[in-house]
Write a structure and sequence with these properties.
Elements (H helix, E strand, L loop, with lengths): L4 E6 L1 H14 L7 E4 L18 H26 L12 H28 L8 E2 L8 E6 L6 H10 L4 E4 L1 E2 L2
Antiparallel strand pairs: 1-4, 1-5, 2-4, 3-6
């Protein structure tokens, strides 16, 4: 029976850095490694940049949609329903700028909330690694075993770098 995930309990940020270095040396790609911790770890410990998200795109899309909606409601309605009052301008900027500003901010908030909801959704189960002791202060390095590597090679590299325990990872049903 082949193992899909190998998990190693490490001690502190230095243990995470050593485990990541060992995995890098034997050729495990960073995308196959996941760090499970109850507290956020600094980016420098994780060996580079975090996974890229599309949250900025959602926020920018919300900005554009909100701005277009605000301009339509403030300027478009004036041209759709003209009310001519003698001597006064058809478009008076200060009250309409408030409408444009509010709808732009509303678009940004809705776009960000929608992006956050879509980016953080998790599929239940699906063979994702799970380790219960993480909630009690443990830090685990979970490796999805690449097809070209053997789990025992990964296990030996992690033990050589000081991992406290190395076991097959549990998966959610």
């Amino acid at each position: 029976m082949s193992e899909h995930f190998v998990s190693a309990r490490v001690e502190g940020e230095q243990g995470v850095a050593r485990a990541l270095q060992a995995l890098r040396e034997i050729g495990v790609p960073r995308s196959a490694v996941e760090i499970l911790s109850d507290v956020p770890l600094p980016e420098a410990v994780l060996g580079g940049a975090m996974k890229a998200t599309k949250l900025r795109r959602f926020t920018f899309t919300g900005l554009v949609v909100g701005l277009a909606t605000g301009v339509f409601f403030s300027i478009g309605t004036l041209f759709l329903y003209p009310v001519l009052v003698g001597g006064q301008p058809i478009y008076f900027a200060p009250p309409n700028l408030i409408i444009i500003y509010e709808l732009t901010m509303f678009g940004i908030v809705v776009g960000t909330a929608l992006g956050f909801a879509l980016e953080t959704r998790r599929v239940k189960g699906g063979g994702r690694p799970y380790w219960g002791e993480v909630s009690h202060g443990g830090i685990y390095v979970v490796v999805e075993v690449p097809p070209d590597l053997v789990a025992t090679r990964i296990r030996e590299a992690l033990i050589a770098r000081g991992a406290e325990s190395v076991d097959p990872a549990e998966t959610l049903p």
